[in-house]
């Protein structure tokens, strides 16, 4: 008996997370399944670049934009799985996916799977001048599901998460999960964009300021996950969903991905040491700045959220499914030098 063809529609395949997931899946040999991928590209130039980078017979591109309802309808109708990693805050894309999946469910004979990417900024709490330190609350994706589904809409990513999580509650023949990674580290095995955001951005801001820094005291804490470990969680979720296993989905399918905690002052100190060693900073001292200065350094109002919040979680659901992350805090701090080397080779410092 030949393997069953599973058609997967990918958004964000050229990105850091999406590329890593695609790399994890595209050459995988899964008994009973044969995967075929269609990835969204914004224009012909990006489509050609992505196809040349991936260079697999089971990989194709389609040109269009997130939120294009006609295109989304076509992709949803013609695919068994949607892996959505492109823009965690794109409400138009979430609405288009919701409408397309609801329409398809009226005639579909089997469930369509949607794996959407969010982020743990959704549980982030901003440090302040009067409360600069850590927040002790730790959200478990198993024990705190009720609270997660009632996070205020003002939280980052929450408007999109709400739309995605409502889909399965409203229609049959759709199974959705939301994956929330924290600070991701490591150079991706993907195809176009291979480095992360939070730490590389902090390196750039540090170089611009010519001084390592934290937002307020830097005692605020986050979780970490290696990009390879994150991609493996998506792989596990996909196989469980394709097999029809009774795993948490819909409003219960809110999956964190983490392997420990760190404080941002530890990152700032490590960046200071690495940059000073490479003669890119005059010293290895770390100073404290306020959120507005952090925003000004990169001309990005969201920058203080990257380094000045506390976001603490426990990834219990994934571990119950057999997910075992291999890289921890030591690897994270050591990877900062790898991030610097990658940027010096591929992007201007």
The CATH topology assignment is: Rossmann fold
- Basic shape: globular
**Stretches where pLDDT falls below 50 for ≥5 residues?**
none
Query: What structural category arises from helix and sheet content?
Result: alpha/beta
The rounded Rg comes to 20 Å
In total, the number of strands is 16
Side by side, the strands of the main sheet go: 3-2-1-4-5-8-12
Largest sheet: 7 strands, parallel
Highest-level CATH class: Alpha Beta
Quote the distance from N terminus to C terminus.
54 Å
Number of helices: 13
Mean pLDDT metric: 95
| CATH-defined architecture | 3-Layer(aba) Sandwich
Q: Estimate percent helicity.
A: 40-55%
Residues in β-strands, percent? 15-25%
Corresponding CATH superfamily: NAD(P)-binding Rossmann-like Domain
Whole-number tally of structural domains: 1
SSE topology:
Layout: E1 4-11, H1 16-26, E2 33-41, H2 44-54, E3 59-63, H3 69-78, E4 81-84, H4 91-105, E5 112-117, E6 125-126, E7 139-140, H5 145-148, H6 158-170, E8 174-180, E9 183-185, H7 198-209, E10 212-215, E11 221-226, H8 227-242, E12 254-256, E13 261-263, H9 264-277, E14 286-289, H10 291-298, H11 303-307, E15 309-310, E16 313-314, H12 316-320, H13 329-346
Parallel strand pairs: 1-2, 1-4, 2-3, 4-5, 5-8, 7-16, 8-12, 9-11, 10-14
Antiparallel strand pairs: 6-15, 11-13
Helix pairs in contact: 1-8, 3-4, 4-6, 7-9, 9-13
């Amino acid at each position: 008996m030949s393997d069953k063809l599973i058609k997967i529609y990918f958004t964000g395949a050229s990105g850091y997370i999406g590329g890593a997931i695609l790399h994890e899946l595209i050459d995988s040999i899964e008994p009973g399944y044969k995967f075929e991928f269609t990835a969204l590209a914004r224009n012909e130039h990006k489509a050609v670049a992505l196809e040349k980078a991936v260079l697999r017979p089971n990989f194709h591109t389609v040109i269009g934009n997130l939120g294009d309802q006609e295109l989304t309808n076509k992709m949803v109708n013609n695919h068994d799985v949607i892996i959505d990693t492109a823009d965690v805050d794109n409400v138009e894309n979430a609405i288009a996916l919701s409408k397309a999946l609801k329409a398809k469910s009226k005639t579909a004979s089997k469930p369509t799977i949607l794996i959407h990417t969010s982020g743990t900024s959704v549980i982030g709490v901003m440090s302040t001048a009067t409360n600069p330190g850590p927040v002790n609350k730790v959200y478990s994706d198993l024990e705190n599901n009720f609270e997660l589904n009632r996070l205020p809409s003002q939280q980052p990513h929450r408007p999109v998460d709400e739309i995605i999580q409502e889909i399965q509650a409203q229609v049959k023949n759709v199974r959705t999960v939301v994956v929330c990674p924290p600070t991701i580290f490591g150079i991706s095995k993907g195809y176009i964009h291979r480095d992360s955001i939070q730490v590389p951005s902090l390196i750039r801001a540090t170089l611009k300021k010519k001084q390592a820094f934290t937002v307020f005291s830097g005692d605020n804490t986050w979780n970490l996950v290696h990009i390879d470990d994150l991609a493996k969680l998506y792989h596990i979720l996909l196989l469980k969903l394709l097999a029809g296993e009774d795993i948490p989905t819909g409003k219960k399918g809110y999956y964190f991905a983490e392997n420990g905690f760190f404080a941002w002052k530890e990152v700032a100190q490590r960046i200071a040491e690495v940059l000073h060693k490479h003669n890119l900073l005059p010293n290895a001292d770390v100073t404290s700045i306020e959120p507005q200065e952090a925003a000004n350094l990169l001309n990005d109002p969201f920058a203080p959220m990257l380094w000045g919040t506390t976001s603490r979680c426990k990834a219990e659901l994934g571990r119950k499914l057999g997910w075992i992350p291999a890289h921890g805090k030591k690897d994270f701090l050591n990877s900062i030098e790898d991030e610097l080397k990658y940027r010096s080779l591929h992007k201007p410092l």
